[in-house]
Amino acid sequence: MTSPTPISGLSQLAARYDVLLCDVWGVIHNGRESFPAACAALARFRAEVGPVILISNAPRPHPPIVEQLDSLGVPRTAWTQLITSGDATRTLLAQRAPGRCWKIGPDRDSVLYEGLDLREGGPEDADFICVTGPYDDENDEPGDYRDRFIACVARGLELICANPDIVVQRGDRLIYCGGALAQLYESLGGRAVMAGKPYAPIYEMALSVAAERLGRPVDPTRVLCVGDGLPTDVRGANARGLDVLFVASGIHGAETIGPDGLILPVVEDLLRQEGLQANWAIADMIWS
Fold this sequence. Notes:
Elements: E1 5-6, E2 19-22, H1 36-48, E3 52-56, H2 62-72, E4 81-84, H3 85-94, E5 100-104, E6 119-120, E7 128-131, H4 146-154, E8 158-161, E9 167-170, E10 173-176, H5 178-187, E11 191-194, H6 200-214, E12 223-227, H7 230-239, E13 243-247, H8 253-256, E14 257-258, E15 261-262, H9 264-274, E16 280-282
Parallel strand pairs: 1-16, 2-3, 2-12, 3-4, 5-6, 5-7, 7-8, 8-11, 12-13, 13-16
Antiparallel strand pairs: 9-10, 14-15
């Protein structure tokens, strides 16, 4: 397995790529504040090189996520278009309308279901489950759902997960996401379906948008995927044969960043343990 090449800034790669597919949470903000240097790097790439498509595992369609980015101070000059797992998941939900759905997640994610003509259900009468995250993502743990999931598995219900992330960084904390619940459901013998990273639908949408913005077909060898999540960002890119820039300061920052910056042997070990590859590694997303 090839070791990632450490770089000091995105400018070192600008001549190699035409398109960036960039993760959001952990790369350009942490849920509480944006990272100005990362935003500046993306803005520079967009201005001088080509489109920057943000691909997020946020379970809501992209309009409210754009509002969130605005509120966090992420400038719109830093990105060309945003595509979310919620955008891709709505296609899966529409295929199951007007079925009865047990909707698991905080109230803020209800926009995912708008206009889809899905009926409300629960563990005892739903036709399928859709998870955007825990009901209370500040306090709930996956085990809180075990008994209800066991009953749903016994009924043969399919679970659609609108956010495949296991955890996400919020400020200085890691909180559980929908992927942690989907992981539990599968461990109990249930079937989970997902459209966000690392699965194909969100990448197909992103590359289609990139082609529109370029005005020509996308050359996959000139697409760079940027992210901090091994099971989502890196695995999704590897599955599509796309190059990867691993941003170490995200959810793995406690392990991969030391007093002198990037600890490359730790990054190599993490990738090896997951059977994954990254072409490049950087401590924090910056231009130079």
